[in-house]
Amino acid sequence: MTEAGFDRVVRAEDVAHMGITEVIRHAPLVYRSYRRLVASIRERRPDVAVLIDFPDVNFRLARELKKLDIPVVYFVSPQLWAWKRKRLRWVQERVSRMMVIFPFEERFYRARGVDAAFVGHPLAELPLPTLSREDYAAEHGLDPAKQWIALLPGSRWKEVTANLAEMVGIKHHLPECEYILPVASTIDREKLVAFLAGQSFDVHLVPDAREALHHARAGVVASGTATVQAAVIGNPFVVVYRVSPLTFKLAKRLVRYPVEIPAQEDAYGNLPIAMVNLIAGQRVVPELIQQQFTAVGVADALRPLLADTPERARMIADLAEVRRMLLPPGGSGSIRRVCDAVEALMEQEIPPSGRIPIASV
Fold it and tell me: I want to staple 119 with a disulfide (CB 3.0 to 4.6 A). Which of 41, 164, 251, 334 is the partner?
């Protein structure tokens, strides 16, 4: 957006911190940056504000924008349909148009009086990787004659330690396979190498998750955005996740899906958490959560996906349908549809000369 001519008032990378101590330590800088951004909005009075995800900050900004009668286009909805449903009134009061990336979200918001539109998921619009299997094998030292399993433990170090430690045990049950581990940009590679050395795990570290999922025979993917990424690539995978017992207990009490998401509990009383299953309205991919997430359990779930079985064929077909559901309606791209919404709001009132046309956060 800077290259397109936008003026950057606050840099997101300066205020994005994770962890309780990190947030507390940087709280004064974050607050000053927020106040500077609000002051800039009051001074420059944009005609439209585009808020993207990041609800903890953007809902506050939407309140300030509402006071100034500046219309708000919100792109990528917070998951209010799963929990923190009380924040829905903030959307109703402060958001002019909600542009959502999952089809059930449009139905959820419209049923509750919010002007919402499904624009498609940007990941579904990306072309598949073009690098051949042979070239990929040569580039990363893989044996093209073997089956490869992609491991995606998460993009945060806490997720890596919680999930990858169990994933490495899969090799004892599927020793004939080779393993590919994409290194997220948020993970310290040297720290990861040291962690894997302690696990005595022979794994091929690669830079790109989409290429790994594309070339792997199957994947093991931690619940999160990566499950959507894996779904649109189309190769079979298993979803896993593990959190602290207290966090899991609280989540089971707090997460409730609306009627727009037909979700059924599994044999252990768990609702589906993988976005691919919520989009499909059924359990397209297996979910191994908490105690069910074991190396032997994952290996058992992977075996029918590694051979040319009816289970593998059915999952590939179901994933293709999920990708189709995520494509932008009407043939135009998701970002183009957001731009159309912004332009429509701007046409409702001719902006006075000298005002900045759009603010994006």
Answer: 334
Model confidence over 2-38: pLDDT tens digits?
888 888 888 776 666 555 555 566 678 788 888 999 9
Provide CB contacts within 8 A for 147, sequence distance 6+: 176, 177, 178, 217, 218, 306
Contact (Cβ atoms closer than 8 angstroms) between residue 242 and residue 223:
no
8 A C-beta contact, residue 117 and residue 97: yes
Is there a contact between 34 and 66 (Cβ–Cβ < 8 Å)?
A: no
CA-closest candidate to residue 49, choices 353, 349, 355, 342: 342
Q: What's the domain count of the chain?
A: 2
Measured in whole angstroms, the distance separating CA 49 from the mean position of its chain's CA atoms is 23
In a domain, 146, yes or no: yes
Beta bridge partners of 118: 100
Query: Tell me: the pLDDT tens digits for 198-217?
Result: 887 889 999 999 999 999 99
Instruction: Please report, rounded to a whole number, the percentage of residues in the chain having pLDDT higher than 90.
Output: 67
Q: Could you tell me if residue 125 is inside a domain? A: no
Residue 251 is predicted with a pLDDT of 85
* Whether residue 152 sits in one domain with residue 94: no
Torsion of CA 250, 78, 115, 6, to 10 degrees: 160
